[in-house]
Specification:
It is a single chain. By secondary structure, this protein is α/β, with parallel strands linked by helices. It folds into two domains: 130 residues, Aspartate Aminotransferase, domain 1; 246 residues, Aspartate Aminotransferase, domain 2 (3-Layer(aba) Sandwich). The protein contains 13 helices and 14 strands. The strands form three sheets. Strands 2-10-9-8-5-3-4 form a seven-stranded mixed beta sheet, with helices on both faces. Helix 12 runs antiparallel to helix 13. The protein is globular, with a radius of gyration of 21 Å. The chain starts with 7 loop residues before the first strand and ends in a 5-residue tail after the last helix. 48% of the residues are buried. The mean pLDDT is 97. Bound molecules: pyridoxal-5'-phosphate (PLP). Pyridoxal-5'-phosphate (PLP) binds next to helix 3.
Length: 392
C-alpha cells in the first residue's frame, strides 16, 4: 500500500480535521479554573448556540462521544417507565432505542425498512392515539448515518403540533450538525444531541446537548438517576464560562476555531456545499449503475451516500481493495446492512478535488475488485461540479 501523501478518510465520521483546527489545538493546556479559560468557555458556548440556531435555549458540552449526549438527553428530561416514541430509521436510531430501554424507559418503536427517513404521518398517528399524553418524548435521528437518509425535522414538529401533543422533540444531529440545516428555535426542537467528529470537523471526544426552556422545565421533575450528565450541574458554572469538572480544554480550542471557519464560510454556503457534493456523488453512483440505499430522493442525505453492492458481492471485500490500493477508508455497512452496503462520507472539511479523488478511488476499486459496473461515474460527477462551480 502506498503510504505517501494523505490518507483519504471518507467514512461519515470521524471526518478530516482541517489544519487550522489541528493548529488551534496545539497549545499548552491551561488552568480550567483561571480567567483565560472563562473566555474560551463563553466563546464556544455562544458559538454553538449560533450553530444550532437557538437564542432561547442553552448548550451543554460534554467530554464524551455522541453516545454520552444521547444518554444525557434522556436522563435529564424523563422518569423511569416513561413512554417515548422512536423511529427506527437505521442502526443509530436502533442503538438510541436500546440505550433508552437499558436506562428504564419504555420506547414505542415505529419500525421501518432502513431505506427512508422518519415518517411524520406515522409519528402523528402514534401521538393521536395517546389521548392521555403518556408519551413524553419523540426521538428522531436527523441524518441516519447508517443509511444516508435525512429526516425533515420541521415536518416532525408540524406532525407533533397537528396532533396537539405536548411531547418533547429530541433530535440526534450527530452526523448532520454543520452539514445540514438545523433550526432549533424555529423547528421547536427541545433537545439536540451532537458530536464533535463529523460536520464540526473536530477529532472525536466532545458531545453536546442543546436544550429548550421546555426541556429545562421537564428537567426539574425528571426522576431518572443522573450525576455526571446533569444539566443543572453544568449550567451553573457555564454561566461564567466554567465547567463543573475538567473540560477537554484542547478540543475546545479546536471547537472555537471550527466555529470561526464555519462562520467565515457562512452556514448557508456550508449547507449548499454539502448538497452539491452529495448530488455529484449520486450522479457518479447512477452512472456506475449501482443502487443508492435511500429510496426516497427527498430523503437523500447531504453528508453521506450509502451504496448497495450488486448481489453476490461483498462490500467489505470491496472496501479492503480500496484501502489497500488507494489508502482510502470508506464507511462499512452496519448491523442489518453489514457487508451489503458501503458508505461514502462527503461531509466536514471537504472540497471538489477531494470529492473527485474519493470518487476516482471508488471507481478504480470497483474495477480492481471485479465489481460489475459501468464506467463514467467520475466523469458524470466532474461534469456536474464544473457546471455548478460556485465562481462559474
Ligand atoms: C456517529 C453517530 C452516533 C454515535 O456517536 P459516537 O460519537 O460514536 O458515540 C450516533 N448517532 C449518529 C447519527 C451518528 O452518526
Amino acid at each position: 500500500m502506498s503510504r505517501s501523501g494523505r490518507h483519504f478518510l471518507q467514512i461519515p465520521g470521524p471526518t478530516n480535521v482541517p489544519d487550522r483546527v489541528l493548529r488551534a489545538m496545539d497549545h499548552p493546556t491551561i488552568d480550567h479554573r483561571g480567567p483565560d479559560f472563562a473566555e474560551l468557555g463563553k466563546r464556544v458556548i455562544a458559538g454553538m448556540k449560533r450553530i444550532v440556531k437557538t437564542e432561547a435555549g442553552e448548550v451543554v458540552i460534554y467530554p464524551a462521544s455522541g453516545t454520552g449526549a444521547w444518554e444525557a438527553a434522556l436522563v435529564n428530561t424523563l422518569s423511569p417507565g416513561d413512554k417515548v416514541v422512536m423511529f427506527e430509521t437505521g442502526h443509530f436510531a436502533w442503538l438510541w432505542d436500546k440505550l433508552a430501554r437499558k436506562i428504564g424507559l419504555d420506547p414505542q418503536v415505529i419500525g421501518a425498512d432502513w431505506r427512508r427517513a422518519a415518517d411524520p404521518a406515522a409519528i402523528e398517528s402514534a401521538l393521536r392515539t395517546d389521548s392521555g399524553h403518556e408519551i413524553k418524548a419523540v426521538c428522531v435521528v436527523q441524518n441516519e448515518t447508517s443509511t444516508g437518509c435525512t429526516t425533515q425535522v420541521g415536518e416532525i414538529r408540524a406532525a407533533i403540533d397537528a396532533a396537539g401533543h405536548p411531547a418533547l422533540l429530541m433530535v440526534d444531529t450527530i452526523s448532520s450538525l454543520a452539514s445540514i440545516d438545523m433550526r432549533m428555535d424555529e423547528w421547536g426542537v427541545d433537545v439536540i444531541v451532537a458530536g464533535s467528529q463529523k460536520g464540526l470537523m473536530l477529532p472525536p471526544g466532545l458531545s453536546f446537548n442543546a436544550v429548550s426552556q421546555k426541556a429545562l422545565e421537564a428537567h426539574k421533575t425528571a426522576a431518572l438517576q443522573r450525576s455526571y450528565w446533569d444539566w443543572a450541574e453544568m449550567l451553573g458554572p457555564n454561566a461564567n464560562g466554567f465547567f463543573p469538572y475538567t473540560p477537554a480544554t484542547n478540543l475546545l480550542y479546536g471547537l472555537a476555531e471550527a466555529i470561526d471557519m464555519l462562520e467565515e464560510e457562512g452556514l448557508a454556503n456550508v449547507f449548499a456545499r454539502h448538497d452539491r457534493h452529495a448530488e455529484a456523488t449520486r450522479r457518479a453512483v447512477q452512472a456506475w449503475g449501482l443502487e443508492i440505499l435511500c429510496q426516497e430522493p427527498r430523503h437523500y442525505s447531504s453528508s453521506l451516500t450509502a451504496i448497495l453492492m450488486p448481489e453476490g458481492h461483498s462490500a467489505d471485500a470491496f472496501r479492503k481493495v480500496v484501502l489497500e490500493n488507494f489508502d482510502m477508508s470508506l464507511g462499512s455497512g452496519l448491523s442489518k446492512v453489514a457487508d451489503k452496503v458501503f458508505r461514502i462520507g462527503h461531509l466536514g472539511d471537504f472540497n471538489d478535488l477531494m470529492l473527485m479523488g474519493t470518487l476516482a478511488g471508488v471507481e478504480m476499486g470497483l474495477e480492481i475488485g471485479g465489481v460489475p459496473h459501468q464506467k463514467g461515474g467520475v466523469g458524470a460527477a466532474m461534469r456536474y461540479l464544473a457546471e455548478t462551480a460556485p465562481a462559474h
